[in-house]
Amino acid sequence: MPMGHEVHGQGGFKFQNWAKTYGSSPELYFQPTSVEEIREILDMARQRDKRVKVVGGGHSPSDIACTDDFMIQMGKMNRVLKVDKEKQQVTVEGGIFLSDLNVELSKHGLALANLGAVSEVAAAGVIGTGTHNTGIKHGILPTQVVALTLLTASGEILECSESINADIFQAARLHLGCLGIVLTVTFQCVPQFHLHEVAFPSTLTEVLDHLNDHLQRSQYFRFLWFPHSENVSVIYQDPTNKPPSSSASWWWDYAVGYYLLEFLLWISTFVPSLVCWINRFFFWLLFSSRVENIAISYKIFNYECRFKQHVQDWAIPIEKTKEALLELKAALENNPKMVAHYPVEVRFARGDDIWLSPCFQRDSCYMNIIMYRPYGKNVPRLNYWLTYEGIMKKHGGRPHWAKAHSCTRKDLEKMYPAFRKFCSVREKLDPTGMFLNTYLEKVFY
Ligand SMILES: Cc1cc2nc3c(=O)[nH]c(=O)nc-3n(C[C@H](O)[C@H](O)[C@H](O)COP(=O)(O)OP(=O)(O)OC[C@H]3O[C@@H](n4cnc5c(N)ncnc54)[C@H](O)[C@@H]3O)c2cc1C
């Protein structure tokens, strides 16, 4: 960028997250194209005593990316900088969407070993909140990061990896957007692969009684429980050498099913007791037979999330899975007025050593609960939410950082053995709290 050119911020921008459940009105909205421009924005923020929040894909179902001061959207800093075929590593700018990265990697015969449900999310954004998928041999997405660079509040660029700035690296692999601006991320990749997906019906009792067998049988095992019933859909995904198969009719059923579901859930906002039957009906309609599909890995990992929802997703120690899920089931049975939309999605992740990882030092089970917003209408969920959080807390749970939760520093200090270490790195890198917002104040104060 030529010297003397002033970076331009847009006024009047309204930010909303993907689910339109949280939003804010940043005073100025920037889409920088270079590090120099970002430095100018930080200078301007410092002079005007403003805070700065970076946003990636804006998918977090919470106010973690909201600000009324300066917002930086990193979508124009989205290049693939280096592909190291020998080490099978890729270095990208922080703003690249995983959807673009997946395609780029496949041109080089590479892939990410695991992905979340959507790829319209940024490389720096997914590691910011600890995005995860499933598979007991696989860690959350930040475990795939081998290096990153951070532009700090003072304008300094820090290279971080296991061997350089190691402490900052352990913090920044799951950074909450509060340590600085993540400029680049280096991911460890694997050779490109196809996945064979098999979904088949089962019951909650069967899955919980044979959890270990399922975990061993499939590399990316997860299951969907249909609350107010025993119904479960088990999903196995495993690498295969077979060529892709077509699953058009399944997806067609799915699409039609979604429109019907939204309509019926809207009706149920007037007659809540219908939810129990809606959950059963859709299990019967969409999930009661065996379905198979083969495709390139990212097309199987990603699935369509068609309409807007509230979610919670805590990680508990894996050995607590059965107890916690049965308690949630009993709570719903004992309180007929409390309704729960399907599915409760149960996924697994290997323990790691990332300071703010919900899987820190323990193999974990993530239990994602959901309440849809049919046609944008909020369905009462407070009772369900509090009951769920109570059960998760009782079993040593830790909330997903992207998803709205009620935890404050007091809770988090108990949950995370390395919480104070993270705080001291944050205070060193950002002493004036330039990268804080309301969500983060709750976390750190
Ligand atoms: C439909 C849907 C499906 C989802 N599926 C899953 C799933 O399967 N598993 C799962 O774990 N989560 C899932 N999520 C949550 C999602 O993966 C996370 O919210 C993720 O962080 C979103 O990435 P993003 O780029 O949209 O981040 P944003 O929401 O934009 O930002 C997240 C955080 O990263 C920070 N940030 C972003 N870019 C930078 C940067 N360059 N430098 C510094 N900080 C930065 C932001 O300030 C913020 O703190 C899903 C969400 C939706 C809406």
Task: Describe the fold and architecture.
- With 445 residues, this protein is α+β, with helices and mostly antiparallel strands.
- It folds into two domains: 80-191, 2-Layer Sandwich (Uridine Diphospho-n-acetylenolpyruvylglucosamine Reductase, domain 3); 194-399, Vanillyl-alcohol Oxidase, Chain A, domain 3.
- The protein contains 14 helices and 20 strands.
- The chain has helices spanning 35-48, 98-107, 123-129, 166-172, 204-209, 211-217, 248-268, 274-287, 297-301, 321-334, 382-394, 409-415, 419-429, 438-444, and strands at residues 15-16, 23-24, 28-30, 52-55, 70-73, 80-84, 89-93, 110-111, 145-151, 157-161, 181-188, 190-191, 194-203, 222-225, 231-240, 291-296, 309-317, 344-349, 364-372, 398-399.
- The strands form five sheets. Strands 16-13-15-14-18-19-17-20 form an eight-stranded antiparallel β-sheet, sandwiched between helices. A five-stranded antiparallel β-sheet has the order 6-7-11-9-10, with helices on one face. The protein has a three-stranded parallel β-sheet with strand order 3-5-4, with helices on one face.
- A hairpin with a 6-residue loop joins strand 1 and strand 2 (23-24).
- It is globular.
- The mean pLDDT is 95.
- Flavin-adenine dinucleotide binds at residues 18-19, 53-61, 64-65, 74, 94, 116-118, 121-122, 124-126, 128-129, 131-133, 176-177, 181-182, 305, 400, 402.
Which key terms come to mind for this protein?
445 residues, alpha+beta, Uridine Diphospho-n-acetylenolpyruvylglucosamine Reductase, domain 3, Vanillyl-alcohol Oxidase, Chain A, domain 3, 8-stranded antiparallel β-sheet, 5-stranded antiparallel β-sheet, 14 helices, 20 strands, 24% strand, globular, binds flavin-adenine dinucleotide
